[in-house]
Write a structure and sequence with these properties.
By secondary structure, the protein is mainly α. The protein has nine helices and no strands.
Length: 210
């Protein structure tokens, strides 16, 4: 069980490092705006959702998308709507970037739900974690069994939150070196990237139904 926990933590930590995903972009945008509590709340919500997919993969639910193919286009449409909306809010309605203390206007429950929703709307993560589980099983380091699904999934969530915590510490340390105008431009750039990512999901949705 300890090996399952350790490997799950490493998978979650290392797998969260790429900054091209929507969760990473949102966490970074909140951090640049000095909204650190909201940023960590988003990462926790996302970690819970992704841990759910990791749990299902260990249980062998990889056939879920095959049995219910309608899940994928619906989730893509919903993800497109959410990401485009968030991107517009960041890019064109960006609030004041503060160098001082973090503002307290964010509802942590809303940030948790936001992170959870965005991650939950990506069922392809089930296929990703299934592939990771298969790779792990092929190494012989760990038996991929339902008994270990729980510890593995919990460790994945902790690994994800641990990485984003490290990222937030780094941003908080180096953020003061940049002017507010520069930080605002960075957040608007992230917003534009989210819009493009949302449009890509919209394209995948259109492609799947036409």
């Amino acid at each position: 069980m300890f090996i399952a926990f350790l490997i799950g933590f490493l998978f979650g930590f290392v797998g969260s490092m790429p900054v091209a995903g929507p969760i990473a972009a949102l966490v970074l945008a909140r951090a640049l705006s000095a909204r650190f509590r909201a940023a960590i709340a988003i990462s926790i919500g996302a970690a819970v959702a992704e841990a759910g997919y990791a749990f299902l993969a260990f249980w062998g639910f990889s056939t879920l998308l095959v049995e219910y193919p309608v899940i994928l286009p619906i989730s893509r449409a919903a993800a497109a709507l959410v990401l485009v909306t968030l991107g517009i809010l960041l890019a064109w309605k960006q609030g004041e970037i503060r160098q001082a203390a973090e503002p307290h206007r964010d509802r942590l429950t809303g940030s948790l739900l936001l992170g959870f929703t965005i991650c939950a709307l990506n069922p392809t993560l089930l296929a990703t974690w299934t592939a990771a589980s298969a790779t792990l099983a092929s190494t012989g380091l760990l038996a991929v069994t339902p008994r270990l699904a729980g510890p593995f999934a919990v460790a994945v969530s902790l690994g994800i939150v641990a990485w984003f915590s490290v990222l937030l510490v780094l941003v908080r340390h180096f953020r003061e070196r940049f002017r507010p105008e520069t930080l605002a431009k960075a957040v608007r750039f992230i917003g534009g990237a989210l819009v493009l990512l949302g449009l890509y999901f919209a394209y995948l949705f259109a492609k799947s139904i036409f």
